[in-house]
């Protein structure tokens, strides 16, 4: 239809994504905007709680969130790429060379946690509680990027999405710890309101993102393999 073509030629797309998707969403948007150069895009990057608020307030067309609540049948959710949570330490940390580290061994480590409202924070605390381990929380930081710098600065260890580490995986100052229960395997979901018709632009983006998903997975696998290789090199 002519009106459809017009929408795709001069449309608008508002996305709200989790902080863990901050690296992936711009990349997919970049590819999308190459194909549909007339579309204006806004991208909001925030934590799980704020994404839920934005969703309730209809602030954006489409969201990348974590695990949706099961009782929520008002929203349409499509499973998207995996979002593994890994335990990260500075590359020279003594535990980096160890295998199968029991979670209890982390009780004596300084743990850096995300802010309240973060899905990563909840997942990490849940895991510690489930195994009856009391973490020693050294500091709270509201950004994955800041956490990476804090780890390098020697302030402690922390759990991050493997997606936020793709640039560091090639060998550098960060390493993954082989800790009991990690990676915590989770998944992103593409989410929108059922009752509100998805705009053609948003629908087109959703399909585009699904097509792009294998590439996101491949990037993740590469990052994991690169971290494994650097560990082997140093052992
Ligand atoms: P967040 O991301 O910690 O920014 O809320 C959550 C997630 O990846 O599940």
How would you characterize this protein structure?
The chain has 235 residues and is an alpha/beta fold. It has helices at 2-9, 24-35, 48-56, 119-130, 144-152, 200-234, and strands spanning 12-18, 40-46, 62-65, 75-82, 85-90, 110-114, 136-141, 157-161, 174-177, 187-193. Helix 2 crosses helix 6 (200-234). 2-phosphoglycolic acid (PGA) binds next to helix 4.
- What's the average pLDDT? 93
Structure classification = alpha/beta
Give the fraction of residues assigned to helices: 25-40%
Tell me about the biggest sheet?
A: 5 strands, mixed
Structure ligands: 2-phosphoglycolic acid
| Rough outline | elongated
The value of Rg in angstroms is 19 Å
In spatial order, strands of the major sheet run: 2-1-3-10-4
Number of helices: 6
């Amino acid at each position: 239809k002519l009106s459809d073509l017009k929408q795709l030629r001069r449309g608008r797309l508002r996305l709200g994504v989790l902080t863990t998707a901050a690296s992936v969403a711009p990349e997919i948007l970049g590819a999308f905007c190459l194909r549909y150069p007339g579309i204006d895009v806004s991208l909001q990057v925030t934590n799980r709680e704020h994404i839920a608020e934005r969703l309730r307030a209809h602030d954006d067309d489409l969201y990348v969130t974590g695990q949706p609540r099961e009782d929520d049948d008002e929203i349409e959710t499509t499973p998207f790429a995996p979002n593994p949570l890994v335990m990260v330490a500075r590359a020279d940390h003594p535990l980096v060379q160890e295998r199968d580290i029991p979670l209890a061994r982390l009780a004596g480590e300084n743990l850096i946690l995300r802010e309240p409202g973060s899905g990563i924070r909840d997942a990490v605390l849940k895991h510690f509680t489930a195994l009856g381990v009391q973490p020693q929380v050294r500091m709270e930081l509201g950004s994955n990027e800041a956490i990476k710098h804090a780890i390098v600065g020697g302030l402690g260890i922390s759990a991050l999405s493997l997606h936020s580490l793709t640039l560091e995986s090639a060998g550098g100052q960060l390493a993954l710890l082989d800790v009991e229960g990690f990676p915590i395997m989770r998944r992103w979901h593409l989410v929108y309101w059922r009752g509100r018709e998805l705009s053609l632009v948003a629908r087109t983006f959703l399909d585009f993102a699904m097509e792009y998903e294998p590439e996101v997975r491949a990037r993740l696998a590469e990052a994991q393999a690169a971290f494994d290789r650097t560990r082997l090199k140093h052992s």
